[in-house]
Amino acid sequence: MIRLARTNRSVIAEWWWTVDKWTLLVLMCLMLLGGVLALAASPAVATRINLPPFHFVYRQMVFFIPAIAVMIGVSLLNVRQVRRLAAIVFATGFVLMALTLIIGPEVKGAHRWLQIGPLAIQPSEFVKPAFIVLVAWLFAEAQRTPGVPGTALGLGLYAMVVSVLALQPDFGQLMLVTAVFGAMFFMAGLSWGWIGSLGALAASGAVAAYTLMPHVASRVNRFLDPESGDTYQIDRALDAFHTGGFFGRGPGEGEVKRILPDAHTDFIFAVAAEEYGVLAGLIIIGLFAFIVVRALRHAMEEQDLFLQFATCGLVALFGLQALINMAVNVNLMPAKGMTLPFISYGGSSLLALAFAMGMLLALTRRRAGSNVAPPSGRRTYA
């Protein structure tokens, strides 16, 4: 076993002694749970649509090693390198997002994907965390240096992103980006006039989506009045929680995965609850909550505004996505079509989340000037 001494000044040794190992461990646990639940949920889905039983399992496993490599590789970067990488990913991803409107295949009435050889990628998944880091930098610069139009530039980036999301259309991602952007707006201490304007814009957009988009109106109506339409998936998901009880029916004994079209993606939380019980659901919630609380604690201990804003923004993006997915599963929100981070099937989602959490790990590493010293009592540099 390789031992990394504190006197070792290599990049790997510096990373090992400065990275938040608890957050890293919990992220790895979530990825492991994703593998276990892929084995539980996806074979039944694959068989139902005439694919080999382990089709989705193999495809998901193919992305696990690259995802771990991306997360660890990005976490090795320093703060300046994280900003530069975010800018590159945002610029590239935004161009690809725009291309989905022109050459992207239509899937369930939306153009969100690009087919590159045998792979289908969803560029918006990568744009989200890069956008958050860039906005955090712009807001921080606006406060550090009077005269820098950081707020206006941040609003410009937001308008660009949500415009393309609305055209795809992908209102689940649009709402998520808006919620996180609004939270960062509030954290940046901007005037209530700006915050109120953003809130009014978001409300107007929601009303417009409800009025102009029949599928959005249908989802909201079915949530408010189940008798107004088909609530089959939600009803079966609720049945899964009921029949699973506290300890579950046992591995492989679940029934909901055999009848739900999206059991391996949007409703994998219901599959977990049916086979492993509400206890397993509480453990999953606890893992997500641990990452969110620990990242927020890091942000509170930082003096650098960019690190505060970026850390809070990234973990808000991560936590809200998990919250929305689980809330939909228990019928606390209208269906959104959003994956459960690191657990639902999806290569683009897995790699994009690894990228986002890699940046979070990089930004929360112990560094010179931090209020918190490493275990040895000496400051270290990242």
From TrEMBL:
Keyword Mitochondrion part of the UniProt annotation: no
Domain of life, source organism: Bacteria
Keywords: Cell cycle, Cell division, Cell membrane, Cell shape, Cell wall biogenesis/degradation, Glycosyltransferase, Membrane, Peptidoglycan synthesis, Transferase, Transmembrane, Transmembrane helix
EC number, UniProt record: 2.4.99.28
Membrane topology term: Multi-pass membrane protein
GO biological process, one term: peptidoglycan biosynthetic process
Top EC category: transferase
Subcellular localization(s) per the UniProt record: Cell membrane
Gene Ontology cellular component annotations, sorted alphabetically: cell division site; plasma membrane
InterPro entries assigned to the protein according to its UniProt record, in alphabetical order: FtsW, FtsW/RodA
Family membership: Belongs to the SEDS family. FtsW subfamily.
PANTHER family associated with the record: CELL CYCLE PROTEIN, PEPTIDOGLYCAN GLYCOSYLTRANSFERASE FTSW-RELATED
Protein name: Probable peptidoglycan glycosyltransferase FtsW
UniProt organism field: Parvibaculum lavamentivorans (strain DS-1 / DSM 13023 / NCIMB 13966)
Taxonomic lineage: Bacteria, Pseudomonadati, Pseudomonadota, Alphaproteobacteria, Hyphomicrobiales
